[in-house]
Structure formats: structure tokens, C-alpha cells
Design goal:
Length: about 475
Amino acid sequence: MLGYGKRFVKRFLVLSMALGLALPGAARGQGASATAIEPGSPDASIVAALRQVSAEHIRANIEKLVSFGTRATISAQDPESIAAGRGIGAARDWIKAEFERYSKECGGCLEVKTDSFTEAPADRIPQPTVITNVYAVLKGTSDAQRIVLVTGHYDSRNSGTLDGTGDAPGANDDGSGTAVSLECARVLSKMKFPATIIFLTVAGEEQGLNGSSHFARMAKEQTWNIEAVLNNDIVGGDKSAEQDHSVVRVFSEGVPAAATEQDIRRIRGLGGESDSGSRQVARYIAGVGRAYAGTVGVKPMLVFRLDRYLRGGDHYAFNQAGFSGVRFTELREDFHHQHQDVRTENGIEYGDVLKFVDFDYVANVARLNAATLAALAAAPAPPANVHLQAKDLENDSTLTWDVVPGAAEYEVLWRATTSPEWEHVLKCGKVTRATLKLSKDNVIFAVHAVDGAGHASLAVVPVPER
Ligand SMILES: [Zn+2]
């Protein structure tokens, strides 16, 4: 499923033979083959869903979000304003109704919910303010406790963080990300997956990640098993001259925000700075991007950094709660078109208005998100208790892991310590142990589980077992 590439395995085998090395033990001893995951062989039902993603639907949804005038978290949410269609309360109710409409179309397949709380006054919250996250749950058919989640923030802002009345259209930031969550819900709700998918829209991002922090804390307290969070924030493909509409950035943390002192000691000792769960999600997205390149129309560009310089977003709230998550953002932001009052000054147009959004680009980003959600929700769970034997000093490497329900086979991945993505893959068959004629000191290993149809789980990097 993931495009790690046949050429890499070939290269490994050729190199092994040239150097007179034995083939990896798992491949010889247990009847497994050493053929690679074939890139570009995507799941036909996922491709069909991606084809349902519509730039027209996305345009209509972003237009609707902009029509509420302002969606500032501190804007109106009283019944009169909701009836008049202005302010965050009206936006919240519309999003909820939209999710409910999608649910009706699939025979009630989505559970539509709100997570509402009152935020106490703080820097950007002048008075106690009700903040409401709106989300839809597509419950998994057999592995429902496993969750993958897509999110965008539906609140907006203009030049003033404390302006609750002036226009703040928020077409790109983050009408675009909200539209991605909605469109993923609309197309994927017509399918069934073993694992659960949550389509989330949050408020309070511009006031200090309030909505996502509340949601992530709730998920942590209730021990939800969220495997991946895809945060879309500013994915409108702003039509500035230097924009590249064929690329979307995917930001991921290196050392996890939630790492304990013990975790950090291990990361430092093993060179694990680029192997957080969030980074495995980013690598997975890169693989999905290659596998579904024929349908998706935008290429993920991995950025090995939590976020843009000195800026933040909702994925960080999830990272802080210990969940793996990444941020999607267009390649080149135009800072005249975000966090600005709508105006023209010295011939420069300021403001986050509709005309700068490229709806075809948002649709492609939605396809990349939908493909990732679907691939993960269709796949088995990532293997647990992945260990690398380190009892004895030896040049072979033995990995062990627990059986994953639904897995038809397991694959060991590896790469040079200096390489950003997995370079080699070895099919091991239905085993829970593999020995490779490769020194653990020289490469980084991981294991993933694959089902009978080729859906691969997230990769898990082993911890040493003494
Ligand atoms: Zn934003």
C-alpha cells in the first residue's frame, strides 16, 4: 500500500549478494518472500471515494462559513445573532446541521456531537466564553476503539484578537481546514472501516488553542486510542504569484511534546530524534501521497519541525496530550491575507477573503487527508511491544512484536540513520520475530502490520530489550 519501493529491496538484495551477506533470516527460515510493497497499487474503493471529493462542495462550504461575517470565538452566539446568521454561534449550528445532513444521507452512520465548555477569562478571552467543538464519528465496524482524526478550526480572527464584532471572513484560516473535515466526512461516511474516524471542527484556536486543548484532554482522560491527528490549517492555496499548487507542507514534531525524562534519555541514546509517532504519521502520509498520486493531485512535502517559525496550531494541543499528529499548510502563506482587517492600503489588499482561495487546491488537500484516514482506518493496528534484542553484542538484529488482530503479515522497514524516509522493506510473513543480517547500530528499524488486502498500519520503531 505504501510506496516504500521495490527498487530499495532490490538494491538491498543486490548489495547483500555483492558483499556475500546471507539473506535476512526471517526471509529464509519462515517461508516469507522478500518482495517489496508495490507502490502505486491503491485500494480501488478508496480511489472511488477520493473521486467524490468536490471542489464545488468545498467552495459552497467556505462561502457559507464566510457568510457568518465573523467567527471570532468571542463573537455573538445568542439566539438573535444565530437567527440573523452572524457570529460563531451561527457557524457552529450550521456545521452541526451539515454533519447531520451527511449522516442522514448514509442512514444515520455518523454520530454528530458537540464538546462544549466555558473558558475562564485569559489574555485573549475577556469574559467567560462558551467554546464548542463540533464533531462527527464514523464508528469502526470491528476495531472501533482505534481512532484516526481530522480537524480544522472554524473560528476566525482579524487584526485584533479581541475584536468580536468586526468582519473576520477567515476563508483560508481556517475555512479551508473546516471544509476539509466536512468534505472528508461527506465522502468517507459512505464507506465502512474496521477503525473509527472522527471528523472534528474546533473553536478557540486563535485565542490559544482552547478548543483543541479541551478536546485532547478529554480524549486523554477517557483513554481514547487516537492513532493519528491530521490538522488542516491554512490549506486554501492562497493565489499569490509564488504559490506552488502542487505541494502541501506536512509539519511534524521531532522529540515529542509529551516525552518523559526517560523517553528523552532513550531518544538521545539511540538517535531517535526523528522517530516520534507524529513523524511516522508524516512518513505514512508521504507514502499515501505516492500510492494515490494519480487521484490526489497534491504532493505532501514533509517538514521535520513542529510548526512554522514561532507559530502554532491545534496539532500541538494533541501532541501535548501525548497523541501523534501533524499539520497540513499550503506551501507559501500570504501574510496580507491572514489575521488582517479587510481593507486596501497603498494598493495592497489585506484580509482573508474568498477570492484568494483556490478551491481545487483545497479539494486536493482533502483527497490527501481522506486517503490517509481511509488507509489507516482500513489497516490493522500498529504492532505493540516492538523490541530490538540487545542482550548480547552481535551484528545481526532481531526484532520481536506482538500479534496484531487482523494482520495477514508483518514487514520490517529500515533506513539509514541519516535518511528522512523508510528506504527498505522486508516481508516477514505471519510471524512475530525477524532476524536481519544488518547491524542495529547502523540503521533505524521499524515494523508495521499489513492486512490481506495490503493495507499497512503505521510503522513502530522498536525499543531495546536487554
Ligand atoms: Zn489557523
